[in-house]
């Protein structure tokens, strides 16, 4: 039985194709810059979203905040040390500043958090 299992395992491993990682690139390929012809064409794709870190100066009272799925989390109430206090109109939540990011959509900056609302800590 053990020999049969070993033989089948060896056969299965030998028959399994090996693929290079998706992020591997050929040695002759160079990165594409955003201002190149290929980069500009790629950025016109409606599915391309540019994401960036935010500065503390951007996080102001009343700023709408989304989650990773684009749903509203609430609005910024204030900064509190390394946290941002966000309110959904009923409850205030504490979101670590490091979890915030901005992205462009429809020509405007949107602000979001990587922390899902269900995992946010309530302000007491």
Give an account of the 3D structure.
This protein has 124 residues and is an alpha+beta fold. Helix content is 17%, strand content 31%. It contains two helices and eight strands. The chain has a five-stranded antiparallel sheet with strand order 2-3-4-5-8, with no helix packed on it. It has a three-stranded antiparallel sheet with strand order 1-6-7, with no helix packed on it. Strand 3 and strand 4 form a beta hairpin. The longest helix has 14 residues. The protein starts with a helix and ends with a strand. About 10% of the residues have low confidence.
Which helices and strands, and how do they pair?
Layout: H1 2-15, H2 37-43, E1 51-52, E2 64-66, E3 72-80, E4 83-87, E5 92-96, E6 100-105, E7 108-113, E8 121-122
Antiparallel strand pairs: 1-6, 2-3, 3-4, 4-5, 5-8, 6-7
Average the pLDDT over all residues and give the rounded result: 79
For the secondary structure, the number of strands is 8
Helix fraction by DSSP (H/I, runs of at least 4): 10-25%
Strand fraction equals: 25-35%
Which radius of gyration do the C-alpha atoms yield?
23 Å
Poorly predicted regions are 4-16
Which class best fits the helix and strand makeup? alpha+beta
Going across the biggest sheet, name each strand in turn: 2-3-4-5-8
Determine the oligomeric state from the structure. Answer: single chain
Distance between the first and last residues' Cα: 63 Å
SSE sequence, one letter per element: HHEEEEEEEE
Largest sheet: 5 strands, antiparallel
């Amino acid at each position: 039985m053990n020999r049969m299992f070993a033989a089948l395992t060896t056969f299965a491993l030998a028959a399994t194709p090996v693929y290079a990682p998706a992020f591997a690139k050929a040695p002759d390929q160079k990165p594409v810059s955003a201002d190149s012809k290929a980069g500009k064409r790629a950025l016109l794709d409606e599915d391309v979203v540019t994401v960036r870190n935010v500065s503390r100066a951007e996080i102001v009272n009343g700023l709408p905040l989304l989650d990773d799925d684009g749903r509203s989390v609430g609005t910024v109430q204030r900064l509190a040390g390394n946290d941002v206090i966000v309110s959904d109109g009923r409850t205030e939540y504490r979101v670590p500043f490091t979890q915030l990011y901005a992205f462009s959509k429809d020509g405007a900056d949107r602000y979001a958090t990587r922390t899902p609302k269900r995992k946010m800590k309530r302000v007491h």
